């Protein structure tokens, strides 16, 4: 069942992105930025976590979860270490995605050349 | 001398000739591909939980790293941009799209050297997402903390 | 000599020889047979897309020289331009060619900017033989103006596909199969359009302005030309141009006003609204249309190269797109 909801929710978030580009005439950059900010706000309101529990990867794979994870990281560290935690905890959860993207992209640039 | 049309009138004329975007088809394709990438993510979650003993919380880290790896590989092989042309937001919104912005920037800048080329350009397209995500998370976390302190 | 804003060339400078080269996608299009050389690799055997663009321009120039039976020393002036910053393709090609050189900066209108200036210089007797040309490369342009080449962004149907190719011609007073009779230099037109993914619509008024000015100056009607060919308006831009000409009360056969951007590729090649780029008008004119002029299937032709003069910075800063169009009238020589 989780696979079904992952498909539906992941698809829906992407569909919203498509509408933002086609109807709202936003660039891909503006679209992803808006989705990330939306994820951060939903995370702050405590609404994104239930969505992840409900749809699994359907909510954690779209870029909205990046905003959610940044907020959650900041809030969790805030609870543990006080105010400085907002800064130190920010990338706690998202580290995997960003580090992997930097390392793999660097290696890719060494191995491949653009094909066009 | 030729008399040019009035700017406002011409802009309206130009808008009327614009090819309409196939919005319904685009949205359907974005839904399909965005959904499929999420299902692939879910499959890796399951794999890491059942085979490698990760918990529900910790399984998302290797899952994201795997998706990022696959996206970078497809970018290097020259496939991801072809998928994107068909899928639109379906391959931009998932985390694989984020990885594609970084890998494509890195690949393109390789000819300008490793430091000022790859190093300086890797975040050229991905940067806004990190900047706005971080600033938004900072503001949201502060607001939430203040509200919790007051309530 | 001039009439209104249009330059006339009483000494009848001619195009001695010309050449067009293209990339793999151009080689699959309907004009494949009109290219003198097709590279089946987007790198044209070089290391970077920028080097490939230079290779395209150098190849077109060298083939044109060879066809005319001339060496590099027989040419007094090289007039060229391109879409990359600082016009590096043209300057670097000029380094290879070793001729006196003036770089041009007319974006996609460079092809006719160069031909008009070459005719002017030769007609005035200051230059014996001039070589002019331009090139564009799809991936070098993508990288400069849009996104990284492997980035998976979706383009709207109003977008256009930058041609990978080049065209070059040699202008002299020697007897030639094709003569240049007149040129109308365009003024910069900007009706406030901002979308860089709909450039045909932005450029159509510039083409309209130059065509109408040319016809008025020459007291001619569209029917006096066997064909009027615009550079890279694409489907949307061409429709808008026809609409503007109709509104101005001109009588014309729509089949005789065509766009080079709609000739290079087949519709199923995924080029959206059509081709664009400096090589769009250059490759179609110096390749396809020159063959028709030489063969006598076209007698008199007006070619109107259109250009969008914005940069990524002006676009980000919210500026509209200034555009230009230069027209050159050519005829079959006697």
Strand content of chain B: under 5%
Residue stretches of chain A low in confidence (pLDDT < 50, at least 5 long) are none
Query: Oligomerization state of this entry?
Result: heterotrimer
Q: What structural category arises from helix and sheet content of chain A? A: mainly alpha
Rounded mean pLDDT of chain B is 95
Can you describe what's shown?
The complex is a heterotrimer of chains A (about 120), B (about 150) and C (about 325). With about 120 residues, chain A is mostly helical. Chain A has one domain (about 1-110). Chain A has 7 helices and no strands. Chain A has helices at about 1-20, 30-45, 50-55, 55-60, 65-80, 85-90, 95-110. Chain A is globular and about 50 Å long. The model of chain A has no long low-confidence stretch (mean pLDDT about 95). Chain B is built from 8 helices and no strands. Chain B is extended, with a radius of gyration of 22 Å. With about 150 residues, chain B is mainly alpha-helical. Chain B is about 75% helix and about 0% strand. The model of chain B has no long low-confidence stretch (mean pLDDT about 95). Chain B has helices at about 5-15, 25-50, 60-75, 80-85, 90, 95-110, 115-120, 125-150. The longest helix of chain B has 28 residues, at about 25-50. Chain B has a domain at about 25-125. Chain C has about 325 residues and is α/β, with parallel strands linked by helices. In chain C, about 35% of the residues lie in helices and about 25% in strands. Chain C is built from 9 helices and 15 strands. In chain C, strands 1, 2, 3, 4, 5, 6, 7, 9, 10, 11, 12, 14 and 15 form a 13-stranded mixed β-sheet that branches. In chain C, helix 6 packs across helix 7 (about 235-245). The longest helix of chain C is centred in the first third of the chain and has 20 residues, at about 50-70. The mean pLDDT of chain C is about 95. Classes of the chains: A mainly alpha (about 120), B mainly alpha (about 150), C alpha/beta (about 325). At the A-B interface, helix 1, helix 2, helix 4, helix 5 and helix 7 of A face helix 2, helix 3, helix 5, helix 6 and helix 8 of B.
Any descriptors?
heterotrimer; A: 116 residues; mainly alpha; 7 helices; 0% strand; B: 151 residues; 8 helices; 76% helix
Per-chain topology:
The complex is a heterotrimer of chains A (116), B (151) and C (334).
Chain A: H1 2-22, H2 28-45, H3 48-55, H4 57-60, H5 64-81, H6 85-88, H7 95-111
Helix pairs in contact in A: 1-2, 2-5
Chain B: H1 7-17, H2 23-50, H3 60-76, H4 80-87, H5 89-92, H6 95-109, H7 114-121, H8 127-150
Helix pairs in contact in B: 2-3, 3-6, 6-7
Chain C: E1 2-3, E2 6-8, E3 14-22, H1 24-27, E4 37-38, H2 49-68, E5 77-82, H3 88-97, E6 101-104, H4 110-123, E7 129-136, H5 138-145, E8 161-162, E9 165-172, E10 178-184, H6 199-217, E11 227-230, H7 234-247, E12 257-259, E13 275-276, H8 278-295, E14 300-308, H9 312-316, E15 323-332
Parallel strand pairs in C: 3-4, 5-6, 5-7, 8-13, 11-12, 11-14
Antiparallel strand pairs in C: 1-2, 2-10, 3-9, 3-10, 7-9, 10-15, 14-15
Helix pairs in contact in C: 2-3, 6-7
Organism (chain B): Hydrogenibacillus schlegelii
Transmembrane segments (chain B): 27-48, 60-80, 87-107, 127-147
Keywords (chain B): Membrane, Transmembrane, Transmembrane helix
């Amino acid at each position: 069942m989780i696979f079904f909801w992952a498909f539906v929710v992941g698809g829906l978030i992407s569909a919203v992105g498509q509408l933002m580009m086609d109807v709202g005439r936003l660039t891909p950059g503006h679209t992803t930025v808006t989705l990330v900010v939306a994820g951060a706000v939903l995370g702050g309101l405590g609404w994104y976590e239930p969505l992840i529990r409900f749809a699994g990867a359907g909510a954690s794979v779209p870029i909205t979860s990046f905003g959610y994870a940044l907020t959650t990281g900041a809030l969790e560290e805030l609870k543990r270490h006080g105010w400085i935690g907002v800064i130190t905890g920010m990338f706690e959860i998202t580290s995997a995605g960003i580090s992997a993207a930097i390392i793999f992209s660097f290696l890719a640039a060494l191995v491949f050349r653009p094909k066009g | 001398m030729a008399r040019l049309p009035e700017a406002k009138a011409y802009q309206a004329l130009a808008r009327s000739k614009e090819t309409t975007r196939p919005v319904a088809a685009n949205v359907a394709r974005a839904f399909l591909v965005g959904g499929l990438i999420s299902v692939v993510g879910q499959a890796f979650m399951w794999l890491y939980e059942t085979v490698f003993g990760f918990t529900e919380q910790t399984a998302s880290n290797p899952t994201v790293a795997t998706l990022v790896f696959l996206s970078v590989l497809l970018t290097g092989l020259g496939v991801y941009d072809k998928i994107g042309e068909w899928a639109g937001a379906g391959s931009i919104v998932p985390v694989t799209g984020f990885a594609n912005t970084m890998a494509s920037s890195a690949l393109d800048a390789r000819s300008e050297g490793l430091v000022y080329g790859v190093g300086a350009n890797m975040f050229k397209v991905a940067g806004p997402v990190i900047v706005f995500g971080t600033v938004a998370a900072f503001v949201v976390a502060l607001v939430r903390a203040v509200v919790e302190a007051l309530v | 000599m001039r009439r209104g804003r249009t330059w006339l060339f009483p000494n009848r400078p001619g195009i001695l020889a010309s050449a067009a080269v293209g990339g793999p996608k151009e080689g699959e299009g309907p004009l494949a047979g009109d290219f003198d050389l097709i590279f089946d690799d987007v790198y044209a055997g070089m290391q970077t897309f920028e080097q490939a663009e230079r290779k395209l321009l150098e190849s077109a120039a060298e083939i044109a020289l060879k066809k005319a039976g001339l060496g590099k020393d027989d040419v007094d002036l090289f007039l060229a331009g391109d879409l990359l910053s600082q016009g590096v393709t043209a300057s670097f090609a000029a380094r290879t060619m070793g001729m006196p050189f003036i770089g041009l900066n007319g974006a996609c209108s460079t092809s006719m900017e160069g031909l008009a200036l070459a005719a002017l210089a030769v007609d005035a007797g200051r230059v014996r033989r001039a070589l002019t040309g331009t090139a564009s490369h799809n991936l070098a342009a993508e990288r400069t103006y849009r996104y990284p080449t492997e980035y998976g962004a979706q383009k709207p149907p109003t977008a256009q596909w930058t041609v990978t190719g080049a065209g070059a011609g040699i202008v002299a007073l020697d007897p030639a199969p094709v003569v240049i009779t007149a040129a109308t230099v365009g003024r910069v037109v900007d009706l406030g359009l901002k979308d860089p993914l709909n450039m045909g619509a932005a450029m159509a008024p510039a083409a309209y302005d130059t065509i109408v000015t040319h016809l008025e100056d020459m007291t001619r009607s569209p029917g006096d030309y066997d064909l009027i060919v615009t550079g890279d308006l694409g489907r949307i831009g061409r429709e808008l141009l026809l609409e503007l000409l109709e509104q101005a009360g001109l009588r014309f056969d729509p089949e005789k006003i065509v766009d080079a951007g709609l000739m290079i590729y087949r519709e199923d090649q995924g080029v959206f609204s059509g081709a664009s780029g400096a090589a769009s008008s250059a490759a179609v004119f110096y390749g396809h249309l020159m063959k028709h002029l030489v063969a006598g299937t076209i007698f008199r032709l007006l070619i109107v190269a259109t250009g969008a003069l914005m940069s990524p910075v002006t676009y980000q800063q919210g500026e509209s797109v200034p555009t230009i169009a230069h027209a050159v009238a050519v005829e079959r020589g006697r």
